[in-house]
Prior knowledge:
With 120 residues, this protein is mainly beta. It is built from no helices and 11 strands. Strands 2, 4, 5, 6, 9, 10 and 11 form a 7-stranded mixed β-sheet that branches. Strands 1-3-8-7 form a 4-stranded antiparallel β-sheet, with no helix packed on it.
Amino acid sequence: xxxxxxxxxxxxxxxxxxxxxxxxxxxxxxxxxxxxxxxxxxxxxxxxxxxxxxxxxxxxxxxxxxxxxxxxxxxxxxxxxxxxxxxxxxxxxxxxxxxxxxxxxxxxxxxxxxxxxxxx
Length: 120
């Protein structure tokens, strides 16, 4: 079955950096769009960054210029490099894979999440 396993979260001071990884298995990784989402306590889950199977990226306005999403299809892994972290970046970060099958059907899979805490 499909598994997405995130890693790399932790505690970092404001202004610091973290690199999240999401390793996929049980799927043809290269044909899926991959995304990073986050959810802070009391807030809705939101898109942070997404990369298509063709390598096109998009970012939430709040992270543009600070975060970079990338993928390594040979390693079935997507990364999120987070620089200049702010306290408001603190959240549980989730990895998601999605692929449009038809107009009405999209396959999507989620990881279990990794905690990012930004605090001095």
